[in-house]
Structure formats: structure tokens, C-alpha cells
Design goal:
single chain; five-stranded mixed sheet; UDP-N-acetylmuramoyl-L-alanine:D-glutamate ligase; globular; 13 strands; 329 residues; alpha/beta; eight-stranded mixed sheet
Length: 329
């Protein structure tokens, strides 16, 4: 692959997270299913916020979490996602740029507010996400920076962003530009419900535009509608060049056309919050690819990064991720 200015460029929902520790009953009292992501409208934001205990605000968004993790591992990165020129939008821009990530997408002057996600963390460390997409839904083909995509070894696409029609167009445009430049395209399936909404389109996107697929076990089974994990692995083998599949405490499985590699989960003393575990696994894995590592080491790096995230509240690393990976490999 020719030299590139960026190892990874990501496209996703630019969101500010509002993190809340709560009891097991709160998601249900608010009328939401525990442990999944639910989209909410602007009219619900104030009522949800008013019903919550004290919270912590920090920048989030699945692909943004991944790209920050990759940057912290020492690679060159870029990110594209839509925010408004409001207080939360300024917080998001500051946070991602201070992490060393190039963020070329201009802020919207009018329209919906910057997206926010209420992350309800229950005592079992499960997270229920209530997401107001706001300005995110306005990301379209014109927001794809073709120069950055063509100058990135890998373009990473966030499945959560796939809902609006113009976002689908943006994905296909980015993939086309990347492949025309001889680059690779990666996709995260993001969530089983996301797969349920877009299964046929995801299968088409994967077949025609995706080289590297990230999914957890439930998402992969939902994608191929199989009876179990082994059958889903058989289906994905050959569908993409590389599939990296997380299985929680059972570690991960990396599938390519000629091999299947397994890796154990990194040991964590106490699981505090699973928010961002898949995001940071992708960060570690993609950083490993960018460094020319083998699949086993890439999976180990993903597991280490995910282990760091689940050991504390929030989806951005709080320790020196590069040093942590060096100490454990």
C-alpha cells in the first residue's frame, strides 16, 4: 500500500456522552429497554435529563472513541462527523483535536443541536444508551473529505451512522474514493438492533465495499441469521478479507479467508462500565494493522484496549494506552 498521511480516517456520529450511574430499574422506569441503544427525539431530551441523577459529560460517539484510541496508540488519524457550532459542539471539537486527531468537518451554523447520548450504567456494568442524534443526521456526501480518505490507509465506517439516506450515500462515496486510491475500508456493525434495521443493506455494503468487518457475536449472528456463532463464522469467512469478532469475556476471533485466530480477553480486576469496549477493541486492532502486526497481536492489542475501557466509567482511555499495550504484549 502506498504511503499515506493517515493510518486511519473514521466517519461516524459526533456525540457528547452524558454518563450516569443508576440502579437496574431506571431504564425501565424511563420506558426503555435495558442494555441497548435507543434513538430519542429532541422533545424527549429535556424530560430524560430531568429524570436523571448527577451526570458526567464527555465527548463520545463510537467511531470517535475508536479514532481517539488509535491516536493514543501513536498512529496518525482523522475523523469526520457533524456537530453544530454550539457549546457541546465546541466541547467535541476541542476534545478530539486535543487528542491529536485531524477533524476537517466544519460545524453547522444552524439546524439541530450537537448530538448527545445519555449512557445509563447499571451495577452489572451494562449500559443503556438513549441517543439524540441532532446534527449527526445531516452528515452527507458533501462532508466526506475526499483528499483525507484517499490519503488514509484505512477508512473506518460506524454502523450507527447508517440510518439517514444521505449518510448511506456518504459511506458509499467514502468507500469508492478509498478503493480508487488503493486503500482499505472497515465497517463496524455497532449494535444488533442497527443490524436488524439495515441487514440487507449491510450485506450489500459488505459485499461490495468493505474489506474489514468489526462485530460482536450477537451482531454477527443477526447479520447472517444463523442458529449459532460457528455458523455465522462460516458465513463471514470469504465475505470480507478480515472479520474481527468480539465475544465479551471469551475474547475475540479473527477470521480471514485462510485462517481463524482466537485471542483471550484481557484480565480486568473489576468491570465498571462496558461502554466503548467494542470501540476500543477496534482501536487496538486497527492500530496493530497499521503497525504491520499479525492477526494474533492485533487481537491482543484490541483486548488490552477494551480491558482498559471497561475498568472505568466512560469510553475514552484514562491511562497511557500505548504504554499499557507495550507492557502487556
Amino acid at each position: 500500500m502506498a504511503d499515506a498521511s493517515y493510518h486511519v480516517a473514521a466517519i461516524g456520529n459526533a456525540i457528547v456522552d452524558i454518563l450516569i450511574h443508576c440502579d437496574d430499574a431506571l431504564p425501565g422506569r424511563l420506558g426503555f429497554s435495558k442494555g441497548v441503544m435507543t434513538l430519542i427525539g429532541g422533545d424527549q431530551v429535556e424530560s430524560v435529563y430531568g429524570a436523571l441523577p448527577s451526570a458526567i459529560e464527555c465527548s463520545g460517539g463510537s467511531a470517535a472513541n475508536t479514532i481517539v484510541g488509535i491516536a493514543q496508540l501513536g498512529l496518525k488519524t482523522a475523523y469526520m462527523g457533524k456537530v453544530k457550532d454550539d457549546q457541546l459542539g465546541q466541547v467535541f471539537r476541542h476534545d478530539i483535536q486535543s487528542s491529536g486527531v485531524h477533524f476537517p468537518t466544519p460545524s453547522a451554523i444552524d439546524g439541530a443541536a450537537t448530538a448527545q447520548c445519555f449512557v445509563l450504567v447499571t451495577p452489572d456494568a451494562q449500559r443503556t444508551m438513549l441517543t439524540f442524534l441532532g446534527a449527526c443526521v445531516n452528515f452527507g456526501p458533501d462532508d466526506v473529505d475526499e483528499r483525507v480518505i484517499a490519503d488514509s490507509q484505512i477508512t473506518y465506517l460506524e454502523g450507527y451512522l447508517f440510518d439517514p439516506p444521505h449518510a448511506k450515500e456518504a459511506f458509499r462515496k467514502a468507500a469508492r474514493v478509498a478503493h480508487q486510491a488503493g486503500r482499505k475500508v472497515a465497517l463496524s456493525l455497532s449494535d444488533p438492533f442497527c443490524v436488524g434495521r439495515h441487514r440487507a443493506e449491510f450485506l450489500d455494503l459488505i459485499a461490495g465495499h468493505v474489506d474489514i468487518l468489526f462485530a460482536n457475536e450477537d451482531e454477527l449472528i443477526a447479520l447472517y441469521q444463523t442458529a449459532g456463532f460457528d455458523d455465522a463464522v462460516t458465513q463471514v469467512q470469504g465475505h470480507v478479507d478480515i472479520a474481527a469478532i468480539t465475544r465479551g469475556s471469551r475474547g475475540s476471533v479473527v477470521v480471514s479467508s485462510d485462517k481463524i485466530v482466537t485471542a483471550l480477553a484481557d484480565h480486568v480486576e473489576q468491570v465498571v462500565d462496558t461502554t466503548g469496549a467494542g470501540d476500543l477493541y477496534a482501536a487496538g486492532f486497527l492500530a496493530g494493522l497499521g503497525q504491520g502486526r499479525d492477526f494474533q497481536t492485533c487481537a491482543q492489542m484490541g483486548g488490552i484496549a477494551a480491558g482498559e475501557i471497561i475498568s472505568h466509567l466512560g469510553a475514552r482511555p484514562v491511562t497511557d494506552l500505548a504504554q499499557l499495550v507495550r507492557s502487556k504484549l
